[in-house]
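>> received
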Amino acid sequence: MDKGRGPRRARELREDRSLIRPRRRKLMIVPPRRLRGQKGKTMRDRDRQTAEHFGILSKVESFEKELLGIDGIVSDTLGDGIDFDLSCWLSDMRYVIIVPRYSIDVRLDINNYFKRRRTLVQTILDTASRFGLSRTEDRIEDYGEHFYIVLRCDVTWPNPHDFKEVTT
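>> returned
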C-alpha cells in the first residue's frame, strides 16, 4: 500500500499541482530603495540631483507644489511630497514620471468614488499641461492609493542632449 511517501507519490503530486499547498508569503516592510554606488541617498535625493543637473529643479518643485494643492492629492507616507522619477533624463529621454498619492473617501457610493477618481486624474493631467507636460500612450496605473503617470515634456523643457554627462 502507498501511504503517500516515495517517488511514486512525489511524481503524482508533480502531475497534479492542485494537491500542493501554496507557500505563505511573509509581509515585508521595505525601506526606501538605495542606489548602487550612492550610499545613503534615497531615490528622491537622486531625482533632486538629476533635476539640478538638467536645470529643471524649479519646474519640478513648482509642479509638485501645484499637485499638492489639488483636493484629494496628499503628501507621500514619508511626508516628503510627491515621488518623481527623472531617470529617463539620464537616458536622453524627455519624460517625467510622477507617482502622486491620493485619498478618496471609500465610504462614498461606488459610482461617486470612480467618478471622483476620474476627475482627480483629469485634474492632474490639466495641471501637467499647464507645465508643458502631456500624457503619453502609456496607461495610467492605479495602485490603490497611488497613480503612476508618465508625462512627455514639450519644447519649454530643456533638451537632455545639451548637457554633459552626469558625474556622481
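>> Confidence is low (pLDDT under 50) at residues 26-42.
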